[in-house]
Amino acid sequence: MTRDEANGLLDAYVDGELDAAKGLELERYLESNPVARAACERLRNLSAAIRDQAAYHEAPAELAARLRASVPVAPETTLVAARRRWLMPAVALAAVAIVACAVAIGLLRPDGEERLAQEVLASHVRATLGNRLFDVASSDQHTVKPWMSSRLRFSPPVTDLSADGFELRGGRLDYVGGQNVAALVYQRRQHVIDAFVWPSQDERAAQALSRDGFNIERFARGGMTFWLVSDLNRKELEDFARLLAERSAL
Q1: Closest to 13 in 3D by CA, of 44, 34, 51
Q2: Domain boundaries, the chain
Q3: pLDDT digits (tens, 9 = 90+) for 207-219
Q4: Contact by Cβ (8 Å): 183, 173
Q5: Dihedral sign, Cα of residue 151, residue 152, residue 154, residue 158
Q6: pTM
Q7: Which H or E run contains 136?
Q8: Phi and psi dihedrals of 184, rounded to 5?
Q9: 132 sits in which H/E element
Q10: Is 187 within 8 Å of 204 (Cβ atoms)?
């Protein structure tokens, strides 16, 4: 099962709508993929929160009156009258359920920013667990930058921050947001930092996120977007982001 197939099945799996075969196949995939497993758990928590905290409102009397007026007048038997009395609250409840479902679907579908955060985190975890951190392993920025530039349609800024305690270890090619990007790899003590870089006219303010025990920093500088991912503590990752932003602007 591919990542895209698994992502497409998560909503149905959480709602208990998959058949037994597909459910077992997805569960085997989740057992071997901690990022997908974490995403599934977030969906479960969100679904439970919606059920527990959603506001339920009784349909207004005006709605029932309008529905009643729209039904053609016909001779009523006792049975017909009873059915009509049952129908009005059922229609109202159905309307509330439709609205609640629409809200839930909107909440469960991540926006573009959240999808990028999930992608860079998944790439970082995949590279770390798969022991494929580098395509080019070097602490020399003059080795890493030409290697990257010759394989990408842009030339990523590669900065030596070893004097500040962030050692350049190398880089690799990655794929984020539907495009090839540079993934520059730094190290702070035992912590690996992935700096994903690609061209963008993004002028939004810097942003700090946390996902599944990892810290994420996003900023834009010099026509490039930077996404940093690491299990390094927030303060040190912020220091790294600040230094990288300052040196990349030179």
Answers
A1: 44
A2: 3-53, 61-106, 112-248
A3: 899 988 899 999 9
A4: yes
A5: negative
A6: 0.57
A7: strand 136-137
A8: -90, 135
A9: none
A10: no
Place of tokens 């992502």: 7
Q: Which residue has the tokens 């129908």?
A: 87
Cα dist from 1 to 12, 32, 68, 86, 183, whole Å: 16, 11, 51, 46, 26
Main-chain phi, psi angles of 197, to 5 degrees:
-135, 135
The CB density around residue 58, as the number of other CB atoms within 10 Å, is 10
pLDDT band of residue 86 (cuts 50, 70, 90) is: low
Going edge to edge, which strands form the sheet with 136-137?
136-137, 167-176, 179-188, 191-199, 224-230, 214-221, 207-211
DSSP symbol at 154: S
Q: What is the pLDDT of residues 170-198, one digit of tens each?
A: 999 999 988 999 999 999 999 999 999 99
Residue 104 carries which side chain, given as an amino acid letter? Answer: A
CA 2 to CA 5: how far, in whole Å? 5
Asked if 160 and 141 count as a contact pair (C-beta separation under 8 A), the reply is yes
Half-sphere exposure of 221 (CA within 13 A, CB side): 20
Q: Ramachandran region of residue 170, left (φ > 0), alpha (ψ -120 to 50) or beta?
A: left
3-state class of 205 per DSSP?
Answer: coil
C-alpha 232/C-alpha 225 separation (Å) is: 20
- Tens digits of per-residue pLDDT, 116-128? 999 999 999 999 8
Q: How many CB atoms are closer than 10 A to CB 239?
A: 17
What is 112-248's CATH superfamily?
MucB/RseB, C-terminal domain (3.30.200.100)
